[in-house]
Specification:
Length: 192
């Protein structure tokens, strides 16, 4: 009976230690670097959306940009699309979103992101990943050759970001680093 109690206590301590080691913290300096990387990736995405949405971008260049954009995201991430003409929000996988963006029925498209900022601090998940949210505002304008501006809206969107600890081999040594990937982009509000 005594060995059973000792085994239970040892198991409890082992499980407790495993949980304790899984909870890694990010120093304030490292957090600043991570925040900067996350905002940089969101700004890159903004540029990619503007390039693919532009009717002047050659198809081959748009395909290269779409590939780069996909690399910013966690697998399976979705991007929300809304319109003033319909109440529902549609969600598409990243590649499908960009392919639809290329096919928009406008002669010219202008897409600008502004007021890019964090709305939530990073929160650690049970698997050790940190999750946060960045909010952006997107101004979309669609033009027709004959009529000029035919559609405009402004959409508030929340972008989930994931911060994960990764490792790579450099010169035979294992080096740990933090990486940032984008997740789902959720539409919060669309207005004229």
């Amino acid at each position: 009976m005594k060995t059973f109690k000792i085994s239970i206590i040892a198991l409890a301590l082992l499980l407790g230690c495993g949980t304790m080691f899984a909870q890694e913290t990010i120093s304030p300096d490292r957090k600043k670097a991570i925040d900067s990387l996350a905002l940089e990736k969101v700004r890159d995405l903004s540029k990619y959306i503007a390039l693919v949405g532009s009717k002047e971008t050659p198809w081959s260049e748009a395909q290269r940009v779409i590939q780069r954009a996909e690399e910013l995201f966690m697998p399976g991430s979705e991007m929300g699309v809304s319109s003033l003409y319909r109440p529902e929000i549609s969600y598409f996988k990243v590649r499908e979103y960009f392919e639809r963006l290329m096919r928009l029925n406008y002669d010219k498209v202008s897409i600008d992101w502004y007021n890019i900022e964090y709305v939530s601090d990073l929160e650690q998940q049970p698997d050790g990943t940190f999750v946060g949210v960045i909010t952006i505002f997107q101004r979309f304008e669609g033009y027709n050759k004959e009529k000029g501006l035919v559609y405009r809206d402004t959409t508030k969107k929340d972008i989930t970001i994931y911060v994960k600890r990764k490792e790579t081999q450099i010169g035979g040594r294992t080096i740990g680093f933090w990486d940032v990937l984008l997740g789902d982009i959720r539409v919060k509000e669309t207005r004229p």
